[in-house]
Write a structure and sequence with these properties.
This protein is an alpha/beta fold and 312 residues long. It has 2 domains: 8-103 and 213-307, 3-Layer(aba) Sandwich (Rossmann fold), CATH 3.40.50; 126-210, Orthogonal Bundle (DNA polymerase, domain 1). The protein has helices spanning 8-14, 32-37, 53-58, 60-65, 79-85, 102-105, 132-138, 141-152, 157-168, 176-186, 189-192, 200-210, 213-224, 241-255, 288-293; strands spanning 22-25, 45-50, 69-73, 91-97, 228-238, 276-278, 301-307. Strands 3-2-1-4-5-7-6 form a 7-stranded mixed beta sheet. Helix 8 (141-152) runs antiparallel to helix 9 (157-168). The longest helix is centred in the last third of the chain and has 15 residues, at 241-255. It is globular, with a radius of gyration of 21 Å.
Length: 312
């Protein structure tokens, strides 16, 4: 299945490209967003990150078409070191699309999808050792229950975790369909009749834990902050509430100065001002047309902030 980039028109509008600017896509995937932005660059620089070697290999033709594109095979958590190594001074725009790409979902051996039988892998960077199968084999009941609840709001986190611990004492859980079947056996009939796949939340939580998605997202956003040029924008597309809450919280800490009524009186010129502003006071949501065209966009949100001042 071809990967359809989410919010393509919104990204083009809210992350405008200057012909000589420096830009980065920290989640290149198959390059859908980048391909729409690159034609606006002339002598600028576009740095494309992806931790998935298959994605980097698939992007080589795009790089040949646009020589200003530099590909970086790395997790975006190392963005600061990579910018420094490339001689970057300031960045005019950064995009992060936190969704799993369609080729990853639709490749059974990657283990991301509950729709195909395959090994419980879920590694975006296949150089790492931690997999979904090793999590199911080694995490204790409390740990499993926590990630299912905290990362995916799974109502039946504890009984599913308990069923996993009981099952693995008899036989390791190594394939996606083995896990799907165990989840179906654990959930009550009423829950199985609800809309949506019964294994969706557990698979989401496992993927997030395998790839340390929330921890790396927080680290990366804070690492990006000092690299942004005046007027530079950061746009983040997220696909579930846990992720979006984190992005919202971090962006709010940059754009809103909380008052301190117990502190000493300050002169107006001494009151700190935010160094970033939100482009919209609410997240962008997909239109009905986009949801019809790309069902995977239904849960997506897009938030953008812009640097308006440097740190004092």
């Amino acid at each position: 299945m071809e990967h359809v980039p989410v919010f393509l028109e919104e990204v083009k509008a809210m992350l405008p490209i200057k012909a000589t600017g420096t830009y980065a896509d920290l989640t290149m995937g198959r390059g859908g967003h980048a391909a729409a932005l690159l034609p606006s660059l002339t002598s600028g620089q576009f740095i494309g990150f992806d931790q998935d070697k298959a994605a980097i290999d698939a992007l080589k033709p795009l790089q040949q078409e646009f020589p200003c594109l530099q590909l970086v095979h790395d997790n975006f958590v190392h963005v600061g070191d990579r910018f420094a190594a490339l001689g970057v001074k300031y960045v005019d725009g950064v995009l992060m699309d936190l969704g799993v790409s369609s080729p990853q979902f639709d490749t059974p051996e990657r283990g991301f999808s509950y729709r195909f039988d395959g090994p419980l892998d879920m590694r975006m960077d296949q150089r790492q050792t931690l997999t979904a199968a090793s999590i199911l084999a080694t995490y204790d009941l409390r740990q499993l229950s926590h990630i299912f609840s905290a990362y995916a709001d799974e109502t039946f986190a504890y009984p599913i975790a308990k069923a996993i611990v009981n099952r693995r004492s008899q036989k390791p859980i190594t394939t996606t369909f083995e896990l799907v079947e165990l989840i179906k056996q654990t959930k009550p009939k009423k829950a199985l009749q609800k809309k949506g796949h019964p294994a969706k939340q557990v698979f989401q939580a496992l993927r997030m834990e395998v790839n340390q998605e929330l921890q790396r997202l927080e680290t990366t956003l804070n690492a990006l902050k000092p690299w942004m040029a005046l007027g530079g924008r950061i746009g983040v597309i997220s696909f579930h509430s846990t992720e979006d809450r984190l992005v919202k919280s971090i962006f709010r800490s940059w754009t809103v100065i909380e008052g301190n009524r117990h502190g000493p009186a300050l002169r107006p010129e001494d009151i700190p001002t935010p160094t970033f502003k939100e482009i919209k006071p609410y997240p962008v949501k997909p239109s009905l047309e986009e949801k019809n065209r790309n069902p995977r966009s239904e849960s997506a949100t897009f938030r953008v902030v812009e640097r308006i001042a440097y740190e004092a």
